[in-house]
Here is the input.
Amino acid sequence: MTKPTPQAQWEQCLSILRVNIDRQAYDALLANISFVSLNKEENKIYLRVQSSFIYETIEHTKRIRQLLYSVIWSVYKTKLIIRYQILADSTTNTVTNVEGTPGTTVETKINRRTKKVEEVVESELESRLNENYTFDNFIEGNGNKLLRSVGISIADNPKQTTFNPLFVYGGSGVGKTHLVTAIGIQFKRNFPQKRVLYVTAHDFKVQFMTAKQQNRINDFIYFYQTIDVLIIDDVQEFSGLTGTQQTFFHIFNHLKMNGKQIIMTSDQAPGSMPGMEERLITRFKWGLATELERPDQELCHKILENKIKQDDLQISDEVVDFISRNIVNSIRDLEGIICSLQAHAMALNRDIDLSIAQLVINQSVKAQKKSITIEMIMDAVCSYFSVSQEDVMSKTRKANIVLVRQVAMYLAAKTTKMSTSKIGLYIGGRNHATVLHSIKQVQNRLLTDKNFQQQVEEIEQSLR
Here is the structure.
C-alpha cells in the first residue's frame, strides 16, 4: 500500500477535525488553514492561515489548539510543532512566520473506521462575565420578578426559543447588567462546554472599527458566529452607526437561525431608538422585549438589607427604612449611599446613625437635581399626556402627538446640555430645524395659553 503524502495526511486531519468541533468554529478557523510543507528533520509542519486573527484565535482558544495538535500528532505519528505562515498581503503573497504553542494536548482515541476523535477538554473562551453578578444576589421584587424568572429559564434550558432574543430595557441603575450577567454565569455553570460572551456595545463597535481598518471583517463576523450565548450591553450605542448595525444584523441572523441565544440591554425600548435600522428593531422584538422597572421602596429595603449583610455592617432598621423611603429608582444609587455612609462614619469616628444618613441623603438628592436626562423627560412627558414613546418617535402628524413631541424637545433644550441636533436625533431622528421650530411653537403657546403653561410647569416639577 502506498504511504499517504503529507498533503493527504493533512486532508485526513481536516476530516477528523470537521466532525469533532462546532461547525461554525471549524468554518471560521480550521477550514481556512492550508498545508504548506512538512520538515521531518526539524519535526515541524508548516501551515498557512489567512490572517493573524485566525492564528491568534486558535492560539488563545485552548480547546481548539489542543485538539489541532492532538489530531496532527495522531495522523502524522509523531510530535510536530506547527509553524504558521500568516498571510500579511494577499496581493504579493507576503507571509509572516510564527510558531505555535502545543501546551498539554487533548487525550484522543481515533476510531480507524470513522477517524473520529473523542476529546477530553472544555472549550475555553474569556466570557468577560462579572462573577459578582449572580442570581443569588439579584434580589427579587415586584418590578423584576418576571425577568428574573425568564432569565433563569434561559440559563436552564438552552433549547427554548420563546425568549430568543431577550431584549431588556430600562433606566440607568435598575440592574440590567446584573440580570444579563447572571443569566450568562448560570448558563455557563449548567453547560460549561458552551461559549458564552458578554460584550458592551461600545467594545463591539470598537472591535468592528479595528477589524475594518485591518481588512478583517470576515474574521470578526466568523468569531461572533461561534458564540452560543451572546450578551450585548447598551445596544442603543449602535444608533447611527450604519456599518456596525449591518454587521450585527448578519451576526444576529446567523446566531438566531442556528439556535444560539441572543441577549441585549438598552436604556430605551426597541421602537424608541433613533438612528436604528428598522430591520434590526424588528428583530429585537422577535422574542421577548420587556422593561426592567425601577425598584420600589420594598425592593430597595431588601437590597439594602442584603448589602448590609454582605458587608457585615451594623446599621439600624430605622436608618434602612429612612434610606429606602428616600432613595428609590436606582440600585446603583443605593450601593453608593452605603459606601458614603461608611466613609462619613469613619471620618466622624461614629456609628452609622440617622443623622449621618440624613446628611448623606441630602447630598445625594442635591447631586441628582443637577442631572436631568432626555430619557427622564420623555418618560415624564409621555406619562403626563398618556401617549406612548413609540408614537412620539414615529412620523405621525396627529395633533396630540405633535404637541407631546414639541414639549419634549422644548424641555430637553431647556433642562439638558444637549444640542438641538442631538435632541432631534434622539426624538425620532428629526433635524436641527424641526427642533428649533418646536421650541418656538411651545414658547409662543406658553405666552397665550395659561392651561398649557400649567401643564408644562407640572411636568418640569415632576423632573426636579
